[in-house]
Amino acid sequence: MSKGANVSLTALSEDAGAVVVSLSWSSVSGAGDADVSVLLVDGNGKVRSENDFYFYNNPAAADGSVQLLGKTPTGSGDEDRISVDLTAVPEGVERIVVAASQYGGARFGDLDDLRMTVADRSGEPLVGFSIHDAGVETAFIFGELYRRAEEWKFRAVGQGYETGLAGLATDFGIAVNEEADETEETGETGEAGEAGDGAEAIEMAKAADAVPAAKTGPVAAPATGAPAPTPTEPVAVPAQTRGRGPRTTKKKVTLPKVAKSSLAENDSWRPARLFPVPTLKSDKEREVRATSVLLSVMAQVPEFGRRLTAAFGAPAGRMQTFTEVSLPHGDTPRRPDGVIRVERAGKLWTALVETKTNGNPLKPEQVQQYTDIAARRGYEAVITLSNDVALEGAAMVDVKTDGRRKHKVSLWHLSWAEVAHQAQMLIRHEGVGNAAHAWLLQELLEYLQHEQSGCHGFQNMGAAWVPVRKGIEDETLASDDTRAVEVVESWERLIRQVCLRLGGELGQKALPVQRVRRGSDPQARRTAAAQKLCLDGRLTAELRIDGTSSVIAVTADLRTGKVRTCVDVPAPEGSYPLTTVKRLVRLLAEAPADLHVESLVEGGNGPRGTLERLRPEPGDLLPKGGAALTGFRLSLIKGMGNTRGNTESGFIRSVDEAVDRFYQGVVAHLGPVEARAGRRG
Q1: How confident is the model at residue 76 (pLDDT cuts 50, 70, 90)?
Q2: What angle do CA 511, 516, 518 make, to 5 degrees?
């Protein structure tokens, strides 16, 4: 579509009662990013109240009309998805404005391939709009959904703001606080309820050049035997703002990371668990138990059930879940592992669920049968759930669809790692409606993380791992060996799982960085990476923490058996080199002593040394000959696991631990210092 054009959604699809809006962009440097926000606007062009503004720390409407689904990596950048249930939008809302904003001096002209896409409930793209004229703007309205009589339409807007999120917010009736006040105090925790009359102004600090604000975490229990303090609601502060953010009216419950002190007599006592797992002895038992546990919690905790199904086109409504349902299929009935049904306004949305645990692969013939059954019975989706992580451009299972059928069935995949990530985000960072829901999610998380559950996520590098690694060590691996592509795909799955786990701990999205142009073929990119692996024996990746410019480079060198994690830290402009070096060493006071620090100069590298050696003599990092200091490269090196799995000596665990140690021991101490990707090598 061209800028300013509009189109009726109902004219494009019979299934446009709920849509998924996607905002995407790419960056050659890998460092570009933006935060999505949604505003519900009345006939006067203003928000009705503070509850009509949605952003990362207020991601979902209570009525299910809007839910931010978060970022997902693509082959060439990031994609932010938003679920909009148009049938649930309140009558007083005339327009749904979809926008994005940047922070820290970044401009939309620094990003490439700015695009907005609207898809129907089944995931079928309906309309797209690209922005080609972005420049110095720090906020952009991509497009809007608006009512005309009884139908919804889409308009391509493409309007930019040089005044950032604050300027955009002011246009829609949001009062902006000019001063950087102290963070809004939060109220007592308890059942979901009102913390005001809903008419208070939304106060927000200016976005210009602000350091991304940390999300408020839960209160930890004291080290003594005293009761843990009541957990408090996360404060709603957009990543672009400092000081006061939009107030949230609903009080939500999070759980402290540190549990209350135990009343057990000794360490051999184990707490009673709602979902016990030690008795599980077979894969079938694990699949049945895992499916029942997950589906029951989804039905009982609305925020969690909605979070997992909104991306699959489910409406916001009353959810019920079932297991071991018998459905007719020829002479022999079939029993999918589970069924999810959501009812709204007398209409049913139904999905069949096929589950695998303990690393077992999905069986294409089973999924094909369930897809055929769903098509005949008018069900909307088939959801596969396994330890494996889906990749762009690589189907989890090969399923054929009958084009003669008018009814479309969507096939979706969910990994156990994603399930655990969403549960952790809710109970540690975003909060749920009441304490019972938080406890249920905690019990689910305990179950998923138990060694006997079989739900640990991606845990095997595949059959090609051992021969490829041996071929690299012996220098006998041919450059066109197809097994190298399998290893690259497994590496990509591992990195995505590392991002999910890290993001759940931090309460922020962590995403793989892809430095390629949008539209490039993912399989061609993996083939090129496989050829590079055959030549230099290295697997490389970059991770970016959402809301910051920190990009962590990870290199697994199969020849040396080492995993290197590194990040580049720029030197502040106009500062004295010795002052800069001393400040860096102070920031890294708690970092590991074996951290490698290298000074960067224009056109090359400067002196280097371990942190242990540099602490008493930071001046040793100063470049020789008066060369200009541009920054520092910080690196940690760890031994690589030998086996292909997730055991103590496994490769997967060694990479996961390396990233965790580097972030917690190094990156987290850098504070407001902007970190960029270090050289991979």
Answers
A1: low
A2: 90
Cα–Cα–Cα angle for 301, 69, 74, nearest 5°? 140
Cβ proximity of 289 and 277 under 8 Å: yes
Q: Whose CA is closest to 411, among 353, 365, 330?
A: 353
Task: Return the SS3 of 540.
Answer: strand
Contact 9/154 with Cβ under 8 angstroms?
Answer: yes
- Of the candidates 129, 130, 142, 126, the one whose C-alpha atom is nearest the C-alpha of residue 8 is 126
Q: How far apart are CA 188 and CA 670, in angstroms?
A: 32
Classify the C-alpha dihedral 182-188-191-196 as positive or negative: negative
Burial class for 208, CB neighbours closer than 10 Å (0-12, 13-18, 19+): middle
pLDDT, tens only, 494-519: 999 999 999 888 888 888 887 766 66
Distance, in Å, from the CA atom of 446 to the CA atom of 43, rounded to the nearest integer, reads 47
Contact 327, 373 (CB under 8 A): yes
What is Dmax (Cα atoms) for the chain?
84
Give the whole-angstrom CA distance, residue 19 versus residue 124: 9
Question: Which residues have a Cβ under 8 Å from the Cβ of 68 and sit 6 or more positions away?
Answer: 36, 38, 54, 55, 56, 59, 60, 80, 81, 82
User: Whose CA is closest to 456, among 441, 442, 445?
Assistant: 445
Lowest-confidence pick of 167-181, 379-393, 638-652: 167-181
In order, the DSSP letters of 661-677 are: HHHHHTGGGSTT---EE
414, 353 contact by CB (below 8 A) = no
pLDDT digits (tens, 9 = 90+) for 239-296: 333 333 444 445 678 887 766 777 888 888 888 888 988 777 788 889 999 999 999 9
Q: How confident is the model at residue 229 (pLDDT cuts 50, 70, 90)?
A: very low
SS3 at position 6: strand
Q: Are strands 596-601 and 604-610 parallel, antiparallel or unpaired?
A: antiparallel
How far apart are alpha carbons 151 and 598 in whole angstroms?
60
- Over residues 188-213, the mean pLDDT reads 34
Candidates 500, 35, 60, 80; CA nearest to 310 is 60
For residue 26, list its beta bridge partners. 112
Cβ-based neighbours of 436, under 8 Å, separated by 6 or more = none
Choice between 185 and 108, residue whose per-residue pLDDT is larger: 108
Distance (Å, whole) CA 152 – CA 230:
44
Could you tell me if residue 454 is left (phi over 0), alpha (psi between -120 and 50 degrees) or otherwise beta?
left
3-class DSSP state of 514: coil
DSSP E strand stretches across 329-386: 338-344, 347-355, 381-386
Matching residue, tokens 């304490």: 435
pLDDT over 50 at 181, yes or no: no
In angstroms, the CA 80 to CA 585 distance is 37
**Residue 331: pLDDT over 90:** no
Residue 586: CB atoms within 10 Å = 11
Helix (H) or strand (E) holding 128: strand 125-131
Cβ-based neighbours of 79, under 8 Å, separated by 6 or more: 22, 23, 24, 71, 72, 73
107's tokens = 């401009």
DSSP state of 62: T
